[in-house]
Amino acid sequence: MTMLFNYEMGIGHKTFFEAKNAKIIKDDVLTTEEINNGEIDLIVTSPPYNVDIKYSSHDDQISYEKYLEFSEKWLTRCFHWLKDGGRLCLNIPLDKNKGGQQSVGADLTTIAKNIGFKYHSTIIWNEGNISRRTAWGSWLSASAPYVIAPVELIVVLYKKEWKKLRTDKKSDLQKKEFIDWTNGLWTFQGESKKRIGHPAPFPIELPKRCIKLFSFVGDVVLDPFMGSGTTLVAASLNNRKGLGVEIDEEYCNLAKNRLTKEAHVLNRKLVEHEKEISRQKVLA
Ligand SMILES: C[S@@+](CC[C@H](N)C(=O)[O-])C[C@H]1O[C@@H](n2cnc3c(N)ncnc32)[C@H](O)[C@@H]1O
User: Roughly how many angstroms between the first and final C-alpha of the chain, as a whole number?
Assistant: First the structure.
C-alpha cells in the first residue's frame, strides 16, 4: 500500500491520476485497499441515491434494504479512514418518493451513528429544483396527496471529537463566509448534468463551503464517490489535498480533465518532468 500524496513511495496500482494535490483512485469504495486508516481529515460526498440514475457502472435501482446494507458498508470504511477528529459531510436526499416513500436522510444518519460517527448538525440545501415533482398523488384531494420538499441534506458527522485543538493549521474563511455558511440553510442552484457530462454532479459551491468551513488549509479531503471530480476541483482550488475514489473509468477521465482545466493541476509525470528540467538547468 502506498502513502497518500507521497511521490517517493510510488503510485498505487489503482491510481488513475496523481498530481501534487489531487489523486484519483479507480476502484470500488467497498473493496479498495488504496487508503490507510486514519489518514483523512474531511470526507465530502454524495453517494448514489438509489433513484434509478443511469450510471455507467453502478446499478442505481436496488431494494431499499440492500441500499441500506450498501450504505452501512461504505460508511464503515469511511469511519476507519478518518482521523480522530475527522469529519464527514454527507449529501443525501431528505426522502425518497420513487418506488415507495422512504426516510433516507433519517435512516442513513442512524446507520452512521450506529457505526460510531457522532452527529453534529444537518445543513438544508435548498436547490429550488422542482423537477423532482413527478406526481401530485391525489390532485386536489386529501385522499393521497404527495408532499415533496425541493431540498437535499448535508448531514455533518465526525469521529470522536468535534473541537480541533491544533493551532498551527490555518483557516481561510472570510468573515462573511463564516457568518453566511454557519446558517444551516444554504440556497444555491444545482449543477447541470449536460454541462458537466455526468448524470448526478453537485455544484462546486457545495464542496467548497464544506471544505472551507470544516477543514484547514493543507488537509486531506476524500470523496469516495468522486463522480466528475467536483470535490477534488474544490479541494485543489482551496489548497487542500483532494482524493477521489470512483468505480467508473469514464468518470475518472472526466474528473482528470476537470482537474487539469478548472484547477490547473499538472499530472505527476509532468511535475517530475519539470523537476528534471530544473535539475538539469541547475547542473548546466
Ligand atoms: C452521485 S454521484 C457523485 C457525483 C459527484 N458528487 C460529482 O459532483 O460529480 C455517485 C458516483 O458514485 C459512483 N459509484 C457508485 N458505486 C461506487 C462504488 N462502489 N465505488 C466507487 N464509486 C462508485 C458512481 O459511478 C457515481 O459517479
Answer: 37
